[in-house]
Structures are given as C-alpha cells and as structure tokens.
Design a protein that fits this description.
The chain is built from 8 helices and 12 strands. It has about 300 residues and is α/β, with parallel strands linked by helices.
C-alpha cells in the first residue's frame, strides 16, 4: 500500500488492502521537484525521482492513493510487467495506466476499469459493540481549500452545540478535533464547551475509533468527506454542520447530496431536536474489495 503518509490516504489504502490480503507492506513515497509540483503524466518517471527506496522484489498487487503515489504506481507498473496496480481517487490521468481505479461517485470519473464508491474508503469496520444510547460525538475538521474555518465560524459551531445540548438534555456530548483543527479553534472549543462536553484537543490517546463504535449520533463539519464517510460505517444518524464555502466545490456538493439522498446524513444547521434514524452501515472498502477479488478471479480463468 502506497501513500504520501497522510492519515486520510493511509486509511483508504489500508481499508481496501485488508479486505484483499493479510500480507501488507506500507510504503510512504515522495518525489523531488518538479515532479512534486506537476500533475502525473506530464513528465516521465525514473527511479531517481523518488525520495524513498524501491525494492527489486515484485509485489503481486500495488494499491496507491493520492497524487504523489501515482508516480510510484506508474514507475512500478513499468518496472514489473505483471504487477496489478490499483489506484484510489481520481488519478487525473487516464485510467488505462492502472488495472483498476477506485473513484467516488462525487468525482464523476468513469471508465471500463473504474469502480465507483459511495463516499471515501476507510479502514473502519462495523462494530459489534452496542452504542451508548445518548452519546453524541461532534467531529471537527479545519481549514482547507474550500472552507475557511474561522474563529467566527468556531463561535457559531459552539453556539449550535450549546443549543443542541439545551434541547436534548439527556445527550452526552463528545467533541473530537482532527489534524486540521487549528490551535485557535481548539482554544475556542475549550473556552465555550468545557462545561457541557468532553473535548479531545489532540493530546493523549485519540478516542476517534471508540467514538465511531459507541456513538448514537454524529455531527461532522462539512469540510471533511472522509470523516463523514467514516461515521457512516455506524449506521447511525450523521448530521452535517455546514460551514460557508470560500470556494464552492461541485464535487463536495455532489457528495453531500448523495449522502442526504441515501438517508445517511441531514443538515444540522437549522435543527434543534435530534432525531433517530437508521440505514445500512456504509462499508465501501469491503464491497469494493469483493468486486476486485471477483474480477481478479475472472482474469485468472
């Protein structure tokens, strides 16, 4: 499994890999300038453009995710002729460079060897642990190219959570920050919510996995399709707290509409009283892996 080392991409490749094989080697790859700045396909690939070593031992399957790992996959495909290479996300080059491409529906990337997923793949599994009936977890993201999670927006989020707690008095509130949550945003959450919520601000053991397993409700900020997808493994209500766009994204809007239409998510911005609903837990890593294994078996016949 090959990524640039970012946690979101590692979760995606590991989520798929673990349903295909138990013999997994994780590789962090990076490339030198100008490959590091250019879209894949504009320049040829050589072994010396990589900052990481490339083994001479051929793997059976290479699963990559993210732009920088495209270079690694293309080079290994050239080096090892019988390699099966699978790329997760839109590679921004022809899908013919890979055996399979896994691309979410909201990317609108299609092809004969493209398998489309609902939302993002991830490494979480459906838990057999009974959820706590009144546990609400708010998962907080941060700034990105489409959303400006300002101090003012943090204040608005805090007011919304205080309002939710007021109208749902039996709710136990957890707030979990992420790698993109700024220190200023964390301070804002602690200042406004410490008396009504348990807040994880990045210090100590991350309770995220446990929260995914145990929560009966989720509120997730709209900046992260990955965290919304991960919460959907629960089959429990996922409310999206919509931040204002600084640059509208058709693909993010498509994602949010898809999850809403599937009965997975609802908008929390204008809601005070939480509602319970269920849906089939979304486990796209398992479903996509099953499709790939079936295709590989057909190719061997």
């Amino acid at each position: 499994s090959v990524t640039d080392g970012s946690q979101g991409m590692i979760s995606q490749v590991n989520g798929l890999s673990r349903h295909i094989s138990s013999n997994i080697i994780e590789i962090k790859t990076d490339v030198i300038f100008p490959w590091s700045k250019l879209q894949p396909g504009l320049l040829p690939t050589y072994n010396w453009i990589f900052k990481n070593n490339i083994s001479n031992k051929q793997p059976d399957i290479l699963i990559s995710c993210g732009r920088k790992s495209v270079y690694f996959s293309l080079y290994c495909k050239k080096k090892f002729k019988n390699l099966i290479n699978i790329h997760i996300q839109n590679p921004k080059i022809s899908s013919r460079s890979f055996n399979y491409v896994i691309s979410p529906n909201h990317d609108n990337f299609y092809g004969n060897n493209v398998i489309n997923s609902v939302g993002a793949l991830h490494q979480f599994e459906k838990s057999n642990i009974a959820p706590k009936p009144n546990l609400l977890t708010c998962i907080v993201g941060g700034n990105n190219q489409h959303y400006n999670f300002s101090s003012n927006e943090a204040e608005k989020l805090c007011k919304k959570l205080i309002e939710i707690k007021k109208f749902n008095t039996d709710i136990e509130l957890n707030v979990i920050t992420s790698r993109r949550t700024s220190d200023l945003l964390k301070k804002n959450l602690i200042k406004n919510l410490s008396n009504i919520a348990k807040i994880w601000n990045g210090v100590g053991e991350n309770p995220y996995k446990q929260a995914i397993q145990e929560s009966s409700f989720f509120i997730v900020t709209s900046d992260s399709t990955s965290m919304i997808s991960e919460a959907a493994i629960s089959g429990k209500p996922v409310y999206i707290y919509h931040l204002p766009f600084k640059r509208k994204s058709r693909r993010i809007i498509n994602f949010q509409n898809e999850f809403s239409n599937l009965g997975i998510s609802r908008n929390i911005n204008n809601i005070q009283k939480l509602e319970k609903w269920t849906y089939k837990p979304l486990n796209e890593s398992e479903r996509i892996a099953r499709i790939i294994k079936e295709k590989l078996m057909q190719d061997l016949k």
